Amino acid sequence: MSDTGNNDSHNALNVRSLAFAGVLLAAALILSYVESLVPFFFGVPGMKLGLPNLAVVLLLFTGRKKTALAVNILRIAVSGLLFGSLFSIIFSIAGAAASYAVMLFMMRNKKYGITGVSVAGGVSHNLAQLLIAAYVVKTSGIVYYSPVLIFAGTVTGMAIGAAASLMIRAFERMK
Amino acid sequence: MFKRNDIILTLSLTASALTLWAVLALSGLFLGKADKEAVVSVNGIEKERYPLSEDVLFSVNTEYGENVVEIKDGVCFVRSADCPDRLCVKQGGISRTGEAIICLPHRLTVKIESTGAGEEDYDAVTR
User: Fold this and answer.
1) Are residues A154 and B13, on separate chains, in Cβ contact within 8 Å?
2) Nearest to A57 by CA among A73, A71, A37, A46
3) If you measure CA to CA, which chain A residue comes closest to B32?
4) Cα(B71)–Cα(B36) distance, rounded to whole angstroms?
5) Which of A75, A120, B20, B46 could form an S-S bond across to A147 if both were Cys, CB 3.0 to 4.6 Å?
6) Are B45 and B17 members of one domain?
């Protein structure tokens, strides 16, 4: 994928990178808010679709791995306090950590494009939340949700991948 | 935007979701009924238990009257009764854990309970 040259390995507080991270954090928070409007997703409290993953995918594919992690953590902290409950924070951490790890891994073996990476991220996000839910509710019957969750993760992953690649193209034109 | 591997990954995930769904639906069909029982009580005292997995027709005779109960294809009905309102017959079939048919004139309840340890059917979980 294209490297915009603002790689965070420079470590200097590049104004452009900082502004970009701020805008994406704000966008991620808006997406968190949109998610929180659908509180009863899959019948499990606190379980979410993973729309804010769009910001993380964008940052990863513009070569800002550390910024992606930072935006992820800040997004969970802020949105958890603003719109969430204790459960939603636990679910968010599980989902975000799993999808970040899986997406990094997928990017490293360069066989997958942006859609594949974000689909894998979406599915792992949902499955991690399912595991947490199974632990919290202590009902093995919750595995019945797994097909729905895999499917939902695939669909949101594809949508996020498509949106992110369109946005990356737009960013490149802006320069 | 789309690499070949992306399409393979997406299709295989969709396929695995479908297979998993089919497996769970089928296992639920076979296992779901086996671990539930219809518990017949009169005046709050438990009289009999019948597994929902077996078709059976029996009558409950008490000092209050008679109810004929049937279990068929995992669903429990009161088929006929000599009580005045026959609400128990009109209620139809029950099959989910926690559901109950109550015949007030005869002090009779038929309630579905699950035999599995702690496994319950949840309609929903609220926070």
Assistant:
1) yes
2) A71
3) A141
4) 12
5) B20
6) no
Can you tell me the distance from the alpha carbon of B105 to that of B95, in angstroms, rounded to the nearest whole number? 23
Chain B residues with CB under 8 Å of A116 CB are 3, 5-6, 9-10
CA angle B53, B59, B63 (to 5 degrees): 140
Compute the nearest-CA separation of A70 from chain B (Å): 26
* Mutate which: A144, A155, A156, A166, vs B, most B CBs within 10 A: A144
Give me the domain span that covers residue B20. 1-34
Asked whether residue B21 falls in the same domain as residue B42, the answer is no
Contact A137 B127 (CB under 8 A): no
In a domain, B124, yes or no: no
Fill in the amino acid letter for A73.
I
| DSSP line for B68-120 | EEEEETTEEEEEEE-SSS-HHHHT--B-STT-EEEETTTTEEEEEEE-STT--
Query: Which residues in B lie closer than 8 A to residue A154 (C-beta atoms)?
Result: 10, 13-14, 17
Summarised one tens digit per residue, pLDDT across range A95-139 is 899 999 999 999 998 889 999 999 999 999 989 988 887 777 665
Please name each of the domains of chain A with its CATH number.
8-174 (1.10.1760.20)
CA nearest to A164, candidates A11, A27, A9, A26: A27
| B87 belongs to a structural domain | yes
Mean pLDDT score, A76-85: 82
User: For A72-100, what is the mean pLDDT?
Assistant: 85
Is the same domain home to B108 and B66?
yes
Shortest Cα–Cα distance, A17 to chain B (Å) = 24
